[in-house]
Amino acid sequence: MKRVIAFLRELKQNNNREWFNEHKDNYRHAQGIFNEFVGQLINRMAAEDESIRGLDVKDCTYRIYRDVRFSKDKSPYKTHMGAYICPGGKKSGFSGYYFHLGVGGQGYPDGHMLAVGDYCCEPNVLKIIREDILDDGNQFHDLVTNAAKYGFVLDDSWKLKNVPKGFDKESPWADYLKYKVYCLWTEPDEQLFISDDSVEKVANIFLAAKPFLNFVNRAIQYVKEGNDI
Fold first, then answer.
1. Predicted TM-score (pTM) of this structure
2. 99 vs 115: CA distance, rounded Å
3. How far from chain centre, in Å, is Cα 12?
4. Domain range summary for the chain, segments of one domain joined by +
């Protein structure tokens, strides 16, 4: 994966079509290395998470070309390579395991990242998750606490200032109800991706957060089945 990171750093410094076209072979080589890693990771994790069995690499990876139509940044290429491993593939609507290699900086998208959960929950899904937290806050707290041992933290992007209307603001779990994003994330050291046993290490970190993922996907499945809420 060192070659992948090296290519992304070069691309960061030369994010234009002329340079990219001249180095298309380097990109394809880096892409091949990354896709091989994703394939190995899927196979390793599927041994313990049957919900992702049968996925192909193409079900989980993304194009490097940016959609710049509504962006002030007109750079044509992403400077990270990412994959979203989830039941049914990246377009299924289910939560999953996401990771990407950046250019070694901090924050999205420059930092290397691991994430588990849902970054854009539908309102109905949010409602179910919050109700489940109220029903068994101890369980949810344990899921978050156990994942924290592997560096994961809850993403508090756009966290509400107040408990949503209709939910008990006096609940001991009130703070958890304020989240609009039920996603765990961490920015690991680059060594995680370049060690000889990186597939095993990444898989173990992801699988440690599988119970949290199951909690979120249970709500998504409930809504997908058309249950009244």
1. 0.94
2. 6
3. 22
4. 2-224
